[in-house]
Amino acid sequence: MPATGPARLEVEDLTVSFGGLVAVNGVCLTAEPGSIVGLIGPNGSGKTTTLDAVSGRVTPSAGSIRVDGEELAEYLPEERIEVGVVRSFQDCRLFPELSVEDVLMICEDARHPVGVVSSTLQMPWARRAERRKLAAVDQVIGSFGLSRFRHHRTSELSTGTRRVVDLASIVLARPRLLLLDEPTAGIAQREAEAFIPLLRRLQQVADCTVVLVEHDVPLVFELCSKVVVMESGAVVSEGTPEEVSRDPRALAAYLGASAEALEVSGPGAGGRSGD
Ligand SMILES: Nc1ncnc2c1ncn2[C@@H]1O[C@H](COP(=O)(O)OP(=O)(O)OP(=O)(O)O)[C@@H](O)[C@H]1O
Ligand SMILES: [Mg+2]
Question: What pTM, to 2 d.p., does this model score?
């Protein structure tokens, strides 16, 4: 697999069962390199489970998951991170006493561990490695407009700013395929809107492909070139936001409730129409 650049994801006939419950049932999904694909659908429709299968947290009972043509089945979750499959969120609330810079340094350290002894003895390679890490951290601080919060403790930040730090930390994991599960959950609508340019910047700065699970449909429609709608473990509609917003099956499965917010209307808005 190439070490850099956005990856191509192909999920084919993916099925995941929990005991007798089929949570994901024959899902097919493709994300082209560098695209942002939205995955939407009602609660319990299998979105998170689909991401879990790609990241390796759950084992599919059938189907294939390929990144740049390579089957992931044999890869452990930690090996998937190494090839650039990065799942969701760091949560910098884990380090309330640390500054933004320190939290980001920890994320960078996690990727490029330098032996404690080498660091302590200030070996030249350790000093060079430290400088490289600091440069990487500087760059994300700049890219995400966090300069003035650099030395603030994360516990002093607003929820929105903390999420920006979380997004910035994702860049340091060097994702090639980024799986985001409800990144705007729990934040105010106004701050969620501010997330649109931030997520776009994340995708550009990290230079990755993104699969985004979100209940904020306007945000998904604004950001994503392709939207996939799930219901009861299966894909019921997919296409551009425009196509999906007109698809009676998407409206029946999920968008009907948001139709007013989206200013869409159509014959399928009231109920499922046959296919
Ligand atoms: N570890 C698990 N064990 C048993 N059942 C599970 C497990 N994880 C998920 N499920 C079930 O699988 C189905 C799909 O759940 P999933 O979390 O993928 O849905 P979702 O689309 O992400 O929903 P939400 O929008 O609420 O996050 C649900 O019926 C859920 O209860
Ligand atoms: Mg979920």
Answer: 0.86
Residue 143's domain comprises 91-172
The residue contributing the CA closest to ligand 1 atom 8 is: 49
Regarding whether 224 and 241 lie in a shared domain, the answer is yes
Pocket probe mutation, ligand 1, options 40, 45, 220, 258, max atoms within 8 Å of Cβ: 45
- On whether both 145 and 166 belong to a single domain, the answer is yes
Residues 85 and 96 in one domain: no
Give, in order, the Cα–Cα distances in Å from 161 to each of 21, 65, 87, 92, 124: 39, 34, 20, 11, 36
Q: Are residues 69 and 205 in the same domain?
A: yes
Distance 201 CA to ligand 2 centre (A): 24
Q: Are residues 60 and 182 in the same domain?
A: yes
Task: Report the pLDDT averaged over residues 178-190.
Answer: 85
pLDDT at 146: 96
Ligand 1: lining residues by beta carbon, under 6 Å: 18, 21, 23, 41, 43-49
**140 within 8 A of 168, measured Cβ to Cβ:** yes
Q: Are 196 and 163 within 8 A, CB to CB?
A: no
Distance 205 CA to ligand 2 centre (A): 26
- pLDDT tens string 113-168: 555 555 566 666 777 888 888 999 999 999 999 999 999 999 999 888 888 898 89
